Amino acid sequence: MREFVEMLDENLEFVNYEINGDELHLRAKSKRQTAKCSYCGTESFQVHSKRIRTLKDLPMQEKKVIIKLEQKKYFCKNENCAKKTFAEQFKFYDVKSTKTKRLQDEIMRVAMTQSSVAASRYLRNSVADVGKSTICNMLKKGLRSECG
């Protein structure tokens, strides 16, 4: 599990895991001591707070994977920055997403081959709990970014 978490991002540290029915819950936390403000780029070491971010990922050993990530929020030290705090970012998910990029890619791959109802049924049974409306929204967003 440690290697898997480090493959997601080298700045992560594996904490523990727990199996609940058909779900594998992985806990990870940041190894960083500093982070750069996502708005102005100023580096900060002063932690404001921590929160648990929940992300769905691709299945492992026929278990749906839920990542519980302890994410730090920092104070921005740049007085000219419009934001006073910012959350550290990791490369394996998009800023406001609840799914890893790997899972998003798999959802799109499946959704492009069948109806959203059939794709949802397949994904819920074997990959992750994903509804028809989520698939439709992802398809719309994907088509907009390809066209724009």
How is the topology of this model organized?
Elements: H1 2-8, E1 12-20, E2 23-30, E3 35-36, E4 43-44, E5 47-60, E6 63-75, E7 85-87, H2 101-111, H3 116-126, H4 132-147
Parallel strand pairs: 2-6
Antiparallel strand pairs: 1-2, 3-4, 5-6, 6-7
Helix pairs in contact: 2-4, 3-4
Features:
148 residues, alpha+beta, 2 domains, two-stranded antiparallel ribbon, 7 strands, 34% strand, disordered C terminus
Summarize the structure.
The protein has 148 residues and is of the alpha+beta class. It is built from four helices and seven strands. It has two domains: 1-91, no CATH class; 99-148.
Describe it.
The chain has 148 residues and is α+β, with helices and mostly antiparallel strands. It folds into two domains: 91 residues, no CATH class; 50 residues. It contains four helices and seven strands, in the order αβββββββααα. The strands form two sheets. Strands 1, 2, 5, 6 and 7 form a five-stranded mixed sheet that branches. Strand 3 and strand 4 form a beta hairpin. Helix 2 crosses helix 4 and helix 3 crosses helix 4.
Number of DSSP helical runs: 4
Q: Which word captures the global form? A: globular
Distance between the termini: 39 Å
Q: Could you estimate the helical fraction of the residues in percent?
A: 25-40%
Average pLDDT rating:
92
Structural class: alpha+beta
The biggest sheet amounts to:
5 strands, mixed
Note the beta-strand portion: 25-35%
Q: Residue ranges: pLDDT <50 for 5 or more in a row?
A: 144-148
Number of strand segments: 7
Q: How many domain units?
A: 2
